[in-house]
From TrEMBL, chain A:
<keyword id="KW-1003">Cell membrane</keyword>
<feature type="transmembrane region" description="Helical">
    <location>
        <begin position="7"/>
        <end position="28"/>
    </location>
</feature>
<feature type="transmembrane region" description="Helical">
    <location>
        <begin position="228"/>
        <end position="249"/>
    </location>
</feature>
<protein>
    <submittedName>
        <fullName>Peptide ABC transporter permease</fullName>
    </submittedName>
</protein>
<keyword id="KW-1133">Transmembrane helix</keyword>
<feature type="transmembrane region" description="Helical">
    <location>
        <begin position="68"/>
        <end position="94"/>
    </location>
</feature>
<feature type="transmembrane region" description="Helical">
    <location>
        <begin position="101"/>
        <end position="123"/>
    </location>
</feature>
<feature type="transmembrane region" description="Helical">
    <location>
        <begin position="183"/>
        <end position="208"/>
    </location>
</feature>
<keyword id="KW-0472">Membrane</keyword>
<keyword id="KW-0812">Transmembrane</keyword>
<dbReference type="GO" id="GO:0055085">
    <property type="term" value="P:transmembrane transport"/>
</dbReference>
<dbReference type="Pfam" id="PF00528">
    <property type="entry name" value="BPD_transp_1"/>
</dbReference>
<dbReference type="GO" id="GO:0005886">
    <property type="term" value="C:plasma membrane"/>
</dbReference>
<feature type="domain" description="ABC transmembrane type-1">
    <location>
        <begin position="66"/>
        <end position="255"/>
    </location>
</feature>
<dbReference type="InterPro" id="IPR000515">
    <property type="entry name" value="MetI-like"/>
</dbReference>
<feature type="transmembrane region" description="Helical">
    <location>
        <begin position="129"/>
        <end position="148"/>
    </location>
</feature>
<keyword id="KW-0813">Transport</keyword>
Length: 267, 498
């Protein structure tokens, strides 16, 4: 598949979800807490995807779950991006033992599974969407920081940095006009990839009851609840599963397309 | 986590044995006697000690199987002597003299003596005991052991439930150490191996004093996921599921003659428990309003489909003092609004609902939030783990309202204790419950507890949302398994596999 196709398919999938989420802010088929639909009503009629155990419209729940998924992705990428970039830049400029120490600390943090780290943070401070975003963002920050550190070191070794130093350009200016623009493409690819992982991490936390608290319909929670009724009401499991797959594949393909673009530019 | 805590000692009225089986010819008896019964459950014990927060799983696996009490509860709720051969009660009802059965041995080989009984009772009443029946046994003044076969218990007041409460107490070897990981009881099975997170096996004890088990042993298989548990039954990895958790999985068994679905009697209640000591729930009108605003029947149908029973009080139909009180504070949003206005909250209020993170609590909390929104009350759902529930709600009383499953039978008496976690305090009710406990006849006790329960229901001390169904699904080849209240206990010794 060509890099463009990757990118386009990825963007289309992400835009489908993003579009649906935008629509949900203007219009929802039913009120989120409307339980008038009857227990596990089959798809069709008023309820396009049917209802859940409590009689709530599944499409409505799915759209609200989309808000949470996208919100988590954006929030976690923002937290992870800002913290990771800051830490990575500092580590990139560090020398000698400080550099070694930074490398070891980041390696240790990365060795810690993202989900486990997130679970520890959530367990310590109570389950909420904010905590989940923060936890996933923090876990992501270590990965971003390590990448940024390596990228910064590469850029700092190039001749134009030496030239800029000789010309008397200050370090903050070098960072802004030389380092950041040079590491941005690779960083962007990584953040797109991390966004997909953040969506999965939030769904996993919610599936385990550690993410978004009820009544908010996270896709992970919807999957958990549908598990017991999968034989009688398969749509309740298939719909959030499909939505999750669409968004994560979309984000991964977008990252892939961007990565291929970046490596082309390098050549 | 009353489920965990209460279940530590939960025997459950309904948890008795439905004796089936019998009538086999010699050959089948021989075959089935060699069979090991594979039991599937979602309740793995936390540890093996019912005074150390072992959870309902430890009662399910060990009660009656590995450990026995001086008495046991039967299917009909009557108490039968087990390790006690006979009992004498003094005229004032304050001195109980128990004579122990002869020839009873612990699995370690040591003979049962009165010292073991004394030590076993003291384990339950000890300061660090987490037994839910601890407070009921506070009435014990002294325990003496005049000889090896006699135990004399002095009470500080009459206690009509004393013998019933004794059926919650496992008689353990006084010399046994660390009962959280090992076991030494007198039951028909001895503990085999406990592989944490996987299985717990029991093997037939050849030195058992009574009728030996009809099978060679039992293996409890633990699942964290109900779907996986049902699949295990479908693939014959287990023979019986002790307690089905969802009505939606049952269709695959009801339509298949290879399985039998049994709908027994349960004693597990789902409670919306208010903190009756803190505002605004210190006002009965507010609690009545909340109770009237929630359509309990709709909630029951949402979660259990056609199963389960609406319940209007803490008392399940199997308790002798049961009365249908579903009409008290029944669903009526208009009444709810009126009560709120009476309580000075015409515009509603908001409160935090501490909700255990495991099923069915989040779903039920979502429903409650949606129902209460209709009368202007805002619910903030705060999900917590079972451990948090124990420390935050049960120990520190740091909550406004919470949800909890209460598995025990005859547990309405806890509303007579103003220091219990829900903080319900009505001096009249406390007095009635105390009088009921000191009653001379069961009729008198029943009448007083009915009266107390009615008052508790009218005060809406809690909102009793529904009574769980008790559904056991087993292979058609199996017989002799218990049907009722199995969340609390699962006597395995009469199970026969043909």
């Amino acid at each position: 598949m060509s890099k463009r196709l990757h990118l386009y398919i990825g963007l289309v999938l992400v835009l489908i979800v993003a579009g649906a989420v935008l629509v949900s802010y203007l219009w929802l088929p039913f009120a989120p807490d409307d339980t008038s639909g009857g227990r596990l009503a089959p798809p069709g009629g008023d309820h396009l995807l049917g209802t859940d155990k409590l009689g709530r419209d599944l499409l409505t729940q799915l759209l609200i779950g989309g808000r949470i998924a996208l919100g988590t992705a954006l929030g976690a990428v923002a937290v992870g991006g800002v913290l990771g970039l800051s830490a990575g830049l500092l580590a990139g400029f560090a020398t000698r033992w400080l550099d070694d120490a930074a490398a070891v600390v980041l390696d240790i943090l990365i060795a810690f599974p993202t989900l486990l780290l997130a679970m520890l943070i959530v367990a310590g401070s109570g389950a909420s969407l904010g905590t989940a975003i923060l936890a996933i963002g923090l876990a992501m920050a270590a990965i971003v920081a390590r990448l940024v550190r390596v990228l910064v070191k590469q850029v700092l070794g190039r001749d134009f940095i030496t030239a800029a130093r000789v010309a008397g350009v200050s370090w903050p200016r070098i960072v802004l006009s030389h380092v950041l623009p040079n590491i941005a493409p690779v960083l962007l690819v990584n953040l797109a990839l991390q966004a997909g992982l953040a969506v999965l991490a939030e769904a996993s936390l919610s599936y385990l009851g550690l993410g978004t608290p009820p009544p908010n319909a996270s896709w992970g929670r919807m999957l958990f609840e549908a598990q017991a009724t999968v034989l009688t009401s398969p749509v309740a499991a298939i719909a959030p599963g499909l939505a999750l797959v669409t968004l994560v594949i979309g984000m991964n393909l977008t990252a892939d397309g961007l990565r291929l673009g970046v490596s082309d530019a390098d050549r | 986590m009353l489920r965990t805590l209460a279940a530590v000692t939960a025997l459950g009225l309904a948890g008795a044995l439905a004796a089936c089986g019998g009538g086999d010819d010699d050959a089948t008896v021989k075959d089935s006697a060699a069979a090991v019964i594979q039991v599937g459950s979602v309740y793995e014990p936390q540890n093996l000690d019912n005074t150390a927060g072992g959870g309902q799983g430890v009662t399910e696996a060990l009660n009656g199987n590995v450990y026995e009490g001086l008495f046991k509860l039967t299917d009909t709720g009557t108490v039968e002597p087990l390790l006690a051969k006979e009992q004498k009660v003094s005229d004032d009802g304050l001195t109980y003299t128990f004579t122990l059965r002869d020839g009873v041995k612990f699995h370690s080989g040591k003979a049962l003596t009165s010292a073991d009984v004394k030590a076993s009772i003291e384990r339950v009443t000890a300061e660090n005991s987490k037994s839910a029946r601890k407070s009921n046994l506070a009435v014990i003044k002294t325990i003496t052991t005049p000889d090896d076969a006699t135990v004399v218990v002095q009470l500080s007041a009459r206690s009509i439930s004393f013998v019933y409460n004794l059926s919650y107490i496992w008689i353990v070897n006084a010399a046994a150490k660390d009962l959280t990981t090992t076991a030494d009881g007198t039951g028909p099975y001895k503990l085999g191996e406990w592989k944490r997170g996987s299985t717990l096996s029991l093997t037939k004890f050849d030195g058992y004093w009574g009728t030996p088990a009809k099978n060679a042993g039992v293996v409890f298989h633990y699942f964290t996921d109900a779907t996986a548990l049902n699949n295990a039954l479908l693939t014959n990895a287990v023979d019986v599921v002790t307690s089905e958790q969802s009505p939606d999985a049952l269709a695959q068994f009801t339509s298949n003659t290879a399985y039998k679905v049994n709908n027994g009697k349960g004693t597990t209640k789902l409670l919306l428990a208010f903190n009756d000591k803190v505002a605004p729930f210190d006002k009965p009108a507010v609690r009545q309003a909340i109770s009237a605003a929630i359509d309990d029947k709709k909630l029951l149908t949402s979660i259990w489909g056609d199963y389960g029973t609406p319940i209007g009080s803490m008392v399940p139909p199997t308790d002798p003092w049961y009365e249908d009180l579903t009409s008290v504070n029944a669903y009526d949003p208009a009444v709810a609004k009126q009560k709120l206005a009476e309580a000075g909250l015409p515009n509603g209020f908001s409160f935090t609902l501490d909700t255990p993170s495991y099923d069915p609590h989040p779903t039920a909390a979502t429903f409650i939030k949606s129902e209460l929104a209709k009368v202007g009350v805002t619910v903030n759902i705060n999900t917590i783990t079972a451990d948090e529930w124990y420390t935050k709600v049960y120990q520190k009383r740091d909550f406004q309202a919470t949800m909890q499953e209460h598995v025990n039978d005859r547990d309405v008496v806890w509303y007579g204790d103003p220091d219990f976690y829900w903080g319900y305090s009505n001096p009249q009710v406390t007095a009635w419950i105390k009088q009921a406990e000191e009653a001379r006849t069961t009729d008198e006790q029943t009448a007083l507890l009915k009266q107390a329960n009615k008052q508790i229901a009218q005060d809406a001390a809690s909102d009793w949302l529904y009574l769980y169904p008790q559904i056991v699904v087993a292979s058609s080849k199996l017989s002799g398994y218990p049907l009722n209240g199995l969340n609390a206990q699962f006597f395995a010794y009469d199970i026969v596999k043909n």
